[in-house]
Design goal:
Length: 417
């Protein structure tokens, strides 16, 4: 018997599945043994988790363990080891008891290699989630966006290799009730569709723009992967409180310090303290990995270009967005900058337009976000010439509207003079 053999490749590639917990329980008994182990496999996996968080705190990617695309072995097995309808039909009613995987008596010469790789990924996943529980919600959101994107790329690779069984398994494990059709397209229960689509601010994801029949929504296979990514991102953002040894907590504190000083604005060639509340809010949301609507993305891009920011820095700002695609983002930013298309740079929307699309967060008594910025910049320059220290008069005119405008842009630290 080779326990967990069918699901070991899935754990190694996608350690967020529920079977990972059962696998670790069988291997270690108690979770605490993982963090106190002196064996190289556990120490290296935990170190990999710490390095991944440090890289994210420094604005880099870091490494995520995994293996190449691999099938779900149960799909090609003709043995009826356990009376489990889930494995027969890849149904979505599985409660992840894992008795079927634990009782597997299929043989593979790759078993011990797959088991070692699954263990590395599982320990890495557990360690990084436990460490994140000691970090700020802002940093957890940033991690969730980046990590979910890594797994989305892997799912797209599996899609290219027609690993529909693996994708069906992952979707079901996350509570997504979906089915692959013979042509590779999908149908998904409307409740599952709304769980993911509600977080994607794009017109095409609105339910009224979809084909709906008998409670099923018909979507493309890549769109299913996108929905799974959104639901996974929410899961990764949740804290997983586990007691950690002091030596690991010391590494977490190092990450905390680095994450506090890591803000995109430290290298911006513009003065963030002069930004109007609307632009501070949009920029803050981008940094948090929140899905920002396209109207707001256009507004912040045009605004930043108009005040002198370069294209590459703006693209970096968008890198925390859940649906970030560097090639598409570069095309869109360059188009707004006038480097593509008709060659004309777009102007930042007026305050009236910002209000129309619900992107306005305060009554600033100006006609345009650009007017706000340049008035504050001019007032600041004048105060420096005269030696005055008082705040610009414009700030007195700002009236906050609603609770959403309170502490707007609090995540953004202004540059020092």
């Amino acid at each position: 018997m080779q326990p967990f053999l069918p699901v070991l490749p899935v754990i190694a590639r996608y350690p967020f599945i529920r079977a990972t917990g059962k696998f670790l329980e069988r291997e270690y008994g108690e979770i605490s043994k993982i963090f106190t182990s002196n064996r190289s496999i556990e120490r290296e996996a935990i170190e990999m988790a710490a390095e991944r968080l440090k890289a994210l705190a420094d604005g880099k990617e870091g490494d995520v363990p995994g293996i190449e695309s691999y099938p779900l072995l149960c799909s090609s097995c003709d043995r009826d080891c356990v009376d489990c309808e889930f494995l027969r039909r890849l149904d979505f009613s599985c409660n992840a008891c894992c008795l079927c995987f634990e009782s597997c008596y299929r043989y593979s010469s790759e078993y011990f290699d797959l088991k070692a790789k699954a263990k590395v990924s599982a320990v890495y996943y557990l360690a990084i989630r436990a460490m994140l529980s000691h970090l700020s919600p802002w940093f957890r959101r940033k991690f969730a966006v980046k990590e979910a994107r890594v797994y989305r790329r892997r799912m797209l690779e599996d899609l290219e290799n027609s690993r529909y069984d693996v994708l069906q398994f992952l979707a079901s494990d996350l509570g997504v009730k979906a089915r692959f059709e013979e042509n590779g397209e999908c149908r998904i229960r409307v409740t599952s569709y709304l769980r993911g689509a509600v977080r994607i601010r794009d017109e095409k994801w609105r339910l009224l723009n979809r084909e709906l029949s008998d409670g099923w929504v018909f979507i493309g296979s890549k769109e299913l992967v996108r929905l799974v990514e959104e639901i996974l991102r929410e899961k990764l953002e949740e804290p997983l409180p586990i007691d950690l040894p002091e030596e690991i907590l010391e590494e977490v504190r190092k990450v905390q310090v680095r994450s506090e000083v890591e803000r995109v604005d430290v290298s911006l060639p513009v003065r963030i303290e002069f930004f109007p509340p609307c632009m501070k809010k949009i920029l803050s949301d981008l940094q948090k990995g929140i899905n920002v609507p396209h109207t707001a993305r256009f507004a912040i891009t045009a605004f930043l270009l108009n005040i002198g920011m370069d294209v590459d820095t703006i693209i970096e700002l968008f890198s925390s967005a859940p649906d970030f695609d560097e090639e598409k983002t570069r095309y869109q930013v360059e188009h707004i900058a006038g480097q593509r298309g008709k060659g004309s740079e777009y102007i930042c929307p007026s305050c009236e337009t910002m209000r129309t699309y619900h992107n306005c967060y305060a009554d600033c008594d100006v006609l345009s976000p650009l007017t706000y910025y340049f008035m504050k910049a001019k007032s600041f320059a004048k105060s420096r010439r005269t030696g005055a220290c008082r705040k610009p008069k414009l700030e007195k005119k700002v009236k906050k509207v609603g609770t959403e405008a309170e502490e707007v842009g609090a995540e953004i630290q202004p540059q020092s003079d």
